[in-house]
Each structure stands twice: as C-alpha cells, then as structure tokens.
Design brief:
The protein is mainly beta. It has three helices and 27 strands.
Length: 434
Amino acid sequence: MHGSARPAASPPPSSATRATEPSPTSPRRPAFSASTPTQACRWLDFDNDGLIDLFVGNETTDPADPDPCELFRNNGDGTFTECAAACGLALKLFVKGVTCADYDNDGDTDIYLSVRAGPNVLLRNDGPEPFASTPSATPARWRFTDVSIPARVTQPSFSFATWFFDFDNDGWEDLFACGYGINHVGDVADDYLRRPSKGTTPRLYRNLGNGTFTNVTAEAGLRRVCHAMGCSFGDLDNDGWLDFYLSTGDPELATIIPNRMFRNDGGSRFREVTTATATGHLQKGHGVSFADLDNDGDQDVYVSLGGAYSGDIARNALFQNPGSTNRWVTLRLVGTRANRAAIGARIQVHLQTSNGPRTLHRTVGSAGSFGNNPLRQEIGIGNATSISKVTVLWPGDPNPQQVEGIQPGAFWSIQQGNPTPSRLPLRSFQFGPR
C-alpha cells in the first residue's frame, strides 16, 4: 500500500454496504467495509476476550460526507461486528496512523491516532459498561475516552507515522509521532543545513506513569524535519535499547528525501547513524520492517520503496545486519486464554550483567504504523551474562507468569500457563550465494 499526503476522497459506501451498529438484540454478522478510504489499521484485543479485533482509521476529507473510524469486534465464529459508535470510536478525522498499547498499565489496550491537519488523539480504554436499557445478562460494551489534551499528546498537527515503544526501558509505553508537513524539499534541506525551516518536526513523548506525557523531542536530539511515511523500530546492535528507521517521501515526484536511521543512546538520546549503518536511501519509502530474516540473532531491515503514482517506482531494499558482539534471545509467545498470537502481551526480561541486574521491557505487536515487525520478540540483551527469568503479562490475565531456564543465543517458545519454555529448532542461513 502506498502512502499519500493528498489522497482523493473515496466515494461513500451506500447504505446497503456500510456497516451499521447492531442493536443489542440483533444477530451477529460479518461487517467489513467495502469502500472506506484508509491506510491505517491495527489488530488488537480491546476487550480482553482472547479474540483479535480490528480497528480501522479512515480518512475523512469532506465533513459533509464523512468516513468514521471503525472497530470490528471478533465474534469468535469467523465473523466480526462493527461497534465503533457504541464504543466512542467513530471519529471523523483524516487518520494517517494508528498505534495501540496499554499506556497507563491498567490491563487493557488504548489507541492513538495520528491525524493530518488536526490534533492527534489518544483514546483511553475505560473498559465495559452495561447497556442501560437491557438486562444485566446482555454482553457489556466497551467505552473509550478522548484524553489527548490532559495527556498532552496532540502534536504535531501534521503527522503520519506513529508508534508506542518503551524507549527508556522503564516499563511505561512512550510515544512517537513523526511530522509530515513541508512546503517543498527545501524545508528538509534547510533543516540539514541547520537553517530555519518551515517543516513539521516530530514529537517524542516520554510516559510519566501518571496518565500524562512530556515532550522530550529536543533533549533526545529529534527536532529534525524528517517527513516520514513508513517507519518501524528495533534493536540494531542488540544493546537492549530500541532504535528506529524512517522511510521518507511524498507523492510529489520532486520529493526525494533521504531515509534515516536513528540509534538509541542509552534511553536518553537518539543519534543519527544513517551513514554509519549504510542504510541511507533516496527513494520514497513506505512500509518498514525490523526482523531477523536469516535467523542469525540480529535484526535486518526491509523497506518498501517507490512513490504513490504509477511510474514512480523503485526496487525495495533489504539491509542485512552484519551483527555485533552483543548477545540476544528470541521469544515466541503462544496464548491459550489470551489471544493465540499474544498481541498486547507485555514481556520483562530479567538479566544478570557485570554491572548488576537489568530488566528489558517489550510488548508483542506489529510495531510502527506503515511498518510491521514479526510477533516473535527478537530481543538484544547487550553484555548480559545470563537471563534470570522472563515475566509475561498476558492480556486479560492479572497474574504474571514467571518462566525460567531460558538461555541466550537461542529461539524459545513460551505458552501461557506452562512454566517450562521449549526451544524452537530454527536454523540460520545466508542471503545470496555462499
């Protein structure tokens, strides 16, 4: 799917095809939209019932003919029911990015929307409430509340790529939203030359753990005009700190802007390492993935390249990671009561190092919007001498699961409720001829 800063509005679905909110007594039925304009969606288990649901952030370009966002609840029988209006999620915005995480650590998944030409939106999951006009036996509906202003995460007003990640490893999900507003490529050039620029800069928000965030963009060295469509994050050098890659561009044929890699320097600052990592590229970038594609213990980077218009094409790029001396472990989680893919599960990897204990925090999910990573967690552990234990917080389960016996440098599977991990028989291989 190609990104677009100025997509044409799609024709609205007819009343016969647009999904509607069913009454509490209506039968469940499939309810996927056929013709709503979107480039942003996320799988999540918003009601912690062990079934994966789908949120779609649609692009409303004409307020007189809106395309509200949609939430499809998994019925567990191969069908979904659209329920955004009942949950307070049928927002009529120009949504360019969607990311999900439990930012307030209350056990359910919240949603953040990156919006073009308007304030971004943080939607707090407030859990179930019974239908007031029906018996208590009727299944409860979920409610989301817009907390964008008190949480202080509405900027930038022109944005695209976004994601939650715990960049400082303190156990609270932080938030990144990349700016996506320039007049022309000169705004990016001015920023490279350290001249005043009219381009929109990103925001890095540190989670304060009390329901609010603070803007640390400048302190983290990220007040740069990046103009990114695609993005994702991972750990380039297996040091345990999450880095990220931005693939840039615009439908305008002249918008040729360098793609950029940023390395996390100890959870306090990001340093651009595009040249040092040989990951620079001038073609327009879209989807980005960090993944250990050759099973050798480090994350490679794959980028989908090319513009939105026919003929504005480019070959995709695969950057093979040469590796480092740092250690690693890969974990695949399998839910039993929680959803089988373990989307939304929180992982704590407890390490022993020469400098004392260290804990890494990871969340199972698909990483950045307009980017995707494997659900298995490929975790760099730096110079750790051993892994004391792994703690898993499964969606919908208040009791943490402790797992011991996991050794570095291998692939492991952890099943919900099973205290014994199993080793996965994955073999490494080489790209290209030997």
